[in-house]
Design goal:
single chain, 373 residues, alpha+beta, Aminopeptidase, 13-stranded mixed sheet, globular
Amino acid sequence: MDNSITIRTVKNKKDLNDFIDFPYELYKNDPLWVPRVKVDILHTFADDNPFWSHSEKILLLAEKNGKIAGRITGTIDRNYIEFQGASVGFFGFFECIEDFEIAKKLLDSVKNWLKEKKIKVMSGPFSPSTNDELSFLLEGYDSSPYVMMPYNPAYYHGFMEKFGLRKSKDLLAMIVDLKNIPEERYSRLENKIIARTPGVTIRPIDFKDFEGEAKRVEYVYNNAWEKNWGFVPWTHEEFFYICKSLKPLFIRDLTLIASVGDKPVGVSIVIPNYNIVFKKINGKLNVPGLIKFLYYKKKIKELRMMVFGVIKEYRNKGIEGLMYLRSLRSAIKMGYERAEGSWVLEDNKNIIQSGERLGAKVYKKYRVYEMEI
């Protein structure tokens, strides 16, 4: 019965642990689900996360007959509102058993919270922002997600539509089989691009100057993605915070910076699909988990092309292609077999067509929803 459903705010450490642990119960029989590292979620919600210096949040749990049955967050990012010029708030971290009444109460709670804050549009899922994990998996339920990509039951989409949310944007993931791309083809393409882009250098990241490199990548990111759907520039504090957390995941020859003279103009960040390892450690990065991480990461054969962009004035000069080729050539030499490019906007025809020319194909689709409130 509806009156057996209660929604309560996360107020203490136990509530937060319940919030983090709920997916383990929800997905316990789903072999494709990959648990996130719990400490990373704690860092996301920590008060010292610079994101919260310009944002506010609410974390909610749903209970049915005294048992946790769902969760959700509400987020207001004032930087996003100012940059986009739109009164938009987010829901995120949505998880729910297959019961629409619970989903409705969770979504209603965030909608009402946003309305009280004078927000006009609710969009999501953003967990917690457009610079983090976002969207629901829509197509491609035959394989596990790659690292830092979402996964969810298919019935979530029915919940969203029944609640009144509508499609805002679809995002794509493309996959390429590296074993089927001959080295000689890479060499020919690379030579052609180099001839068209004199003065451009592409080099691996220098970990000895990590803070300086983070500033260069930040400059490219905040300029290259400026006109993209949903974009909001990182603050320097936010960017360095996330770079420090991701540093252990970076591979030198797969993290590339393109420059013209001393000016950074492009960046490509490709990381191993650590979800292969995260399945083994079950969200726990304790001593046994760390030992498993170090052991199983050597067995990863898949990559995620996570960040890839060139600032506006240097686009369409071949720099994108050169970084792409250098990354994949390095990946092949290291023994990697597949690479996922994600996410790609559904209307970014240039990237989609460029990927297809090099053998990539769309194999997963994700959806973001919105509604006026």
